[in-house]
Structure formats: structure tokens, C-alpha cells
Design goal:
624 residues; Trna Endonuclease, Chain: A, domain 1; four-stranded mixed beta sheet; eight-stranded mixed beta sheet
Length: 624
């Protein structure tokens, strides 16, 4: 016998040709779906990531894996239809998802097989994988089951039956002896009768396998057509082992030209090349930096600014809800972030580990058209409105029954989808109903829906922190090595420079404008505005708080904003904060402004002076 590597087998046509992602809409050097795990991790929040030694939150992994799984799932549905029409092979194609751990496998399995979608993630809508009416189309195989049964010591009937199922995926019948009697594995008939199952191979109708770790050595199913990897791959050998499970050909017959027909397996998330990277362990030590003490000055207590600490909001919706549409942040379906189409190719990577477009084999485009076909926008709008209704009723902030709330929310979702969702080609509006867009849309709507005060509803009010009172500039006291600027009209001695010029220029205008009674840079102050994004509660920290030199006193929150993907989300959160605090009334009047050019700082302050009556100054201090 001779050693015959997988790459040689692929090139000689003895196995299926793996088609890998080689290019996508992001323009990235290595497309995201070539290594899904590495594409997902940087997009998770710290809480979702679980720390260096922890495991990512399973729902967060599925949130980002939704699109690539759906993309290949749509191709699988099309291929299954083609196989059924050809009638030369009664077996279904098999789809494999290899997960990092049992927690991720459980969430993925329940989403595909049991239609249990976590909050913020739409149903899978791959009907062929759904288990229903006693028919099992999808199975979950844990590494423990494989390990136990490999040694012949299955601890339960369930584990042994799962092993019989796994070993017979893609088999229509048992082999037979000379008398035509089926040759079953030892113990199968007894276990099948005990469990009341038919005597045909239990894996015969399996279409999807969600596994943890490797499928068993020697697994010989030859009807695998699609593979998705949701785990890290730290070696070339592991990549070859995972993909190798799906490369057995269905047919070895020669055509009239003396060649075998081409068979392919489409693979997302299993990279064929891992380039190790060594960090430089001998970096030069950093020079000692000058440090500045930033603190409140007792002699400037007349410039003190106090602010409320808001940790959430209270609503008491009895019947009617409304939306202030001008403040609802838009949602862009951006192909530069989440690829809606990928080009795949039979590709062996270059020496530097990058997918290559050159070499033999045609490039094929994989997109979301199979998912989009046959789906109506109105149907999906109702699905999202239903999720929103359940969220409100479950949250306890709404006294209105579901049948009163749902029609209102359906109209709101319809308008949001039509006016606030912008697909950037080749993305389409229907892609909103894939995660993570789906969850982001629900978050934006939950943050924007208010009691309809014009119909007699009580306004939304803030929920203040109970363990601490209002915040104050008197609490600022810390050291920094960042550049600082001295200022005059502030309780705090310095403005800390977090930008090259922007914030320093804004500080000069605030320190000299007649409408400003006092101001403070929001650093070390503890002022934050809560908002939800990506399923997590975040704190938005605006740049400045200004106490206007007006009578009565009013406050202005100022954000000097360059480019920020979440600028509209944070701006909406700030306007919600202002509206709720003003409705409560106990902490005075507040306004919010976002400025994108330095001229706008002065323009905003001039507008505030026109809106409110300026108070006279005495000795450079605010008399209010």
C-alpha cells in the first residue's frame, strides 16, 4: 500500500472536488466564509466572546452563522429537488455542520430541526431539515457518543441507536447474504424492536448532521454535498479530516470519454491552510510618559454640573403606541460587512494560505436567491411583528393585550421596512429577515416605540439608579498620560484630548461662547446613556455636557462625531434619554446635539441662545 494524500486524490478525480469560498462582496483578501470562526470572533461583543479562556455564547455564533448556513441550505434544497427529479438515486444529499462544542451544536440543532430560534434570530426556514410528525431529518452527534461506541461500550440505548443511525447515513438497505437475508450489525434488531423502530437502516433518511468534533474514522457516507465549519481549525490535518468525511464519490462509473463525471462538495468555514503567526517577544520597552492629574477644583464649585444616572426606562402602555420616525436609526444591509454572495471554486490554496482564482475548475456563485425565492415581504413583516408583540407582552411594560398590540406593531414594522431599511446591492430587502439584521431591526424598533401620549398614554420616564444618586463633576479625579488642555469655564481643570484636533477645537468654542455657563469633558465623569445593540446592553459616552447660561438653567449634551457605524443608534438612544428625563422633570431641561463639523458647535450654541433667555454674567461665572 502507498500513502495517497487527499490533495492528490482531489487532483486525480478519485474523490469529490471541494469548492471553497475564494471571493466575496467584502473585497477582503480572505473571504469571511472561508474561515467562518475567524470571521465571527472579531464581531462579537466582549460579553458574547466569553474572555480568552471562555467559549463564545452559542446564540451569538448562530447569529452570525445564520447567513452562510442559509446560503448553503438554499443550495441544498435546490440540489435535493434535482436529485428527486432525476430518480437515479433515491437518497437525499447530506449536509454536515461541525461545531466547536455541545452548547453551540445544541442551539444550531434546535434552530434547524425543532424550529426553536433564539430571540433576535429568525427561524431557519430550511424545511428539509425540520424534524416533524415522527420523521427525523436532522440528528445531533456529540463526540461522547462517538467515543463510547467506538470502544463498544455504549452506556445507553439512545447512544447505541445514534451510532447505528450515524453509521447508516446514506444507506438505503442492509447488505444481504446469499439467501437474500439482511445482514444487520450485532444487536440492531433487538434494539430496534425494543424501541419500536422499523428494521431498515436508521440513517437512511437523514439529511443533516450537526456534530461536535470529528465524525468517526472510516465513516463512509458518499452522499455528503455541503459542509459548514463552526469551530476553530488549528492545523491543516484537522481541515483535511473534516472535509475528507464528505469527499467520497457517489458514482465511479466512466463516461463515454473514459472519464468520471465531476462531483463537488461545497465547503464553508473549513480552511485548507493555517499559517502560524509568532508574536515578537523582544519588543523595545515603552518610554516613560508624563502623567497629568485631572480633577475638580474646589475654587470652581460654581461651575459644578450634576446629571442623572439613567439605567433604563419605564413604560405603562395601556392601548396605544407610537414612533417618532425622525429619530429612528436606519439600517443598511451592507454587503461589505455580511456577504450575500460568495464565489466558490475547486481550489487548493497558494503557499501563503490565500484562496486562489487561478488553476483548473470553474468559478460558481453562491447567493441567497434560493432563500429569497417564494418568500413574500408581507409574510416576513408579520413574523417580525409577532416577535415584537411577544417581547412587549413578556416584558411586563405593556398592559395592552396581544390582539390590540399586534396590528399596531405590524404597521410600524411595515413602515420601518419600507422607509428605514436600505439594501446595498447585491443585498436585497428580504435579507433583513436573516440574522444578525433581523435582531438589529427588532432592537431598533424596541428602542423607538413609545406610549402614544397624544392618545392619553403616560409618557416614558427614566429608571434612575437606586444605589447612587446623581453624578457630579465633583467626582472627577484620575491620572492620564494623554495630552490635556487647560480650560477656564469648567469645574474640572483639564480637557483630555482623545482626538488630534476635534475635541480641542470644540473645547475652545465651549470655553468662550457666551451661551455656555459651564461645561465638562465626559472623561472620568461616569455619564453614560444606555442602549441595546447586538443583543447586549451598551453605554454610550457622549463627549461633553454643557450647562447653558440661560434662565431657567438648561443642559446640552454635545457629541463631536467622526465616522461611526453606530452613530444613528447612539443618537436615537440620546434623544430617548432626553425625552424621558424631560418628561420626569426632576433634573431640569436637557437637549442633545451631534456635530460633524466644527462650525456646527457654534451654530448649535447660537440656536440655544435664541431658544432660551441668556442670563447675565458676573465676574465670568454663571449666575443661575
Amino acid at each position: 500500500m502507498s500513502d495517497f494524500p487527499l490533495t492528490d486524490a482531489i487532483e486525480s478525480g478519485l474523490v469529490k472536488i471541494p469548492q471553497l469560498a475564494v471571493r466575496d462582496t467584502t473585497g477582503a483578501e480572505i473571504p469571511g466564509y472561508f474561515n467562518i470562526w475567524r470571521w465571527i470572533l472579531p464581531q462579537l461583543t466582549p460579553a458574547e466572546r466569553g474572555g480568552k479562556m471562555g467559549s463564545p455564547k452559542p446564540e451569538a455564533v448562530l447569529k452570525w452563522a445564520n447567513t452562510p448556513i442559509t446560503m448553503l441550505g438554499g443550495l441544498w434544497e435546490e440540489l435535493r429537488t434535482i436529485w428527486e427529479q432525476q430518480k437515479d438515486d433515491p437518497r437525499p444529499p447530506v449536509f454536515i455542520i461541525v461545531c466547536k462544542n455541545t452548547a453551540i451544536a445544541k442551539v444550531v440543532y434546535e434552530w434547524l430541526a425543532e424550529n426553536k430560534a433564539p430571540m433576535g434570530i429568525p427561524p431557519s426556514n430550511i424545511a428539509g431539515f425540520r424534524n416533524s410528525d415522527g420523521r427525523v431529518n436532522t440528528i445531533r452527534v456529540d463526540s461522547r457518543v462517538v467515543s463510547e461506541t467506538d470502544t463498544g461500550h455504549a452506556k445507553t440505548d439512545e447512544a447505541q441507536w445514534m451510532r447505528f443511525t450515524l453509521d447508516t447515513v446514506g444507506r438505503m438497505d442492509w447488505p444481504r447474504d446469499q439467501q437474500g437475508r439482511p445482514i444487520c450489525p450485532a444487536g440492531f434488531e433487538e434494539l430496534a424492536k425494543k424501541r419500536g423502530r422499523p428494521l431498515h437502516p436508521p440513517g437512511r433518511d437523514i439529511r443533516c448532521i450537526v456534530s461536535v468534533g470529528m465524525l468517526t474514522e472510516g465513516w463512509d457516507c458518499n452522499s455528503v454535498t455541503h459542509i459548514v465549519g463552526l469551530r476553530p481549525f488549528m492545523s491543516q490535518l484537522l481541515c483535511e479530516q473534516v472535509v475528507g468525511r464528505g469527499l467520497r464519490r457517489r458514482n465511479y462509473e466512466l463516461t463515454g470519454s473514459g472519464l468520471m463525471t465531476e462531483e463537488v462538495a461545497k465547503v464553508f468555514g473549513v480552511p485548507f491552510q493555517v499559517i502560524p503567526f509568532k508574536a515578537n517577544q523582544t519588543a523595545a520597552p515603552k518610554p516613560t510618559e508624563k502623567r497629568h492629574h485631572v480633577h475638580a477644583l474646589p475654587g470652581r464649585s460654581h461651575f459644578e454640573i450634576r446629571f442623572p444616572r439613567v439605567e433604563g426606562y419605564r413604560q405603562a402602555i395601556r392601548n396605544r403606541v407610537s414612533v417618532e420616525w425622525a429619530s429612528v436609526p436606519p439600517l443598511f444591509l451592507d454587503p461589505l460587512r455580511i456577504p450575500p454572495e460568495v464565489e466558490v471554486k475547486a481550489s487548493l490554496q497558494t503557499n501563503n494560505g490565500r484562496p486562489s482564482l487561478s488553476g483548473p475548475g470553474a468559478i460558481q456563485r453562491v447567493d441567497l436567491n434560493p432563500f429569497r425565492s417564494g418568500r413574500r415581504l408581507q409574510e416576513l413583516v408579520f413574523e417580525m411583528a409577532g416577535d415584537l408583540t411577544r417581547e412587549y407582552v413578556k416584558g411586563g411594560a405593556c398592559e395592552a393585550p396581544a390582539h390590540v398590540l399586534f396590528p399596531q406593531l405590524a404597521r410600524i414594522v411595515q413602515r420601518y421596512v419600507e422607509q428605514k431599511v436600505t439594501p446595498i446591492k447585491p443585498a436585497e430587502r428580504l435579507d433583513l429577515f436573516l440574522s444578525p439584521y433581523y435582531g438589529w431591526a427588532i432592537e431598533r424598533l424596541v428602542e423607538s416605540i413609545r406610549p402614544d401620549t397624544s392618545q392619553g398614554e403616560a409618557p416614558e420616564v427614566p429608571r434612575y439608579e437606586t444605589s447612587r444618586g446623581p453624578g457630579s463633576t465633583a467626582d472627577v479625579d484620575y491620572w492620564t498620560s494623554k495630552d490635556v488642555r487647560e480650560i477656564a469655564r469648567s469645574h474640572v481643570n483639564y480637557v483630555v484630548a482623545d482626538t488630534m484636533k476635534w475635541e480641542q477645537q470644540a473645547a475652545y468654542i465651549l470655553d468662550t461662547h457666551p451661551a455656555v455657563g459651564a461645561f465638562v469633558k465626559n472623561a472620568g465623569l461616569g455619564f453614560a446613556i444606555p442602549y441595546i445593540h447586538n443583543g447586549q446592553l451598551h453605554d454610550y459616552v457622549p463627549d461633553f455636557i454643557v450647562r447653558l447660561n440661560t434662565n431657567p438653567a438648561a443642559h446640552l449634551i454635545v457629541e463631536t462625531k467622526g465616522f461611526d457605524d453606530l452613530a444613528e443608534v447612539k443618537s436615537a438612544a440620546a434623544r430617548r434619554w432626553v425625552s424621558a428625563v424631560n418628561a420626569d422633570g426632576r433634573m431640569g431641561t436637557w437637549q442633545y446635539a451631534i456635530v460633524r463639523k466644527m462650525d456646527d458647535v457654534r451654530r448649535v450654541l447660537d440656536a440655544m441662545a435664541d431658544t432660551y433667555s441668556l442670563a447675565p454674567r458676573k465676574d465670568g461665572s454663571n449666575t443661575t
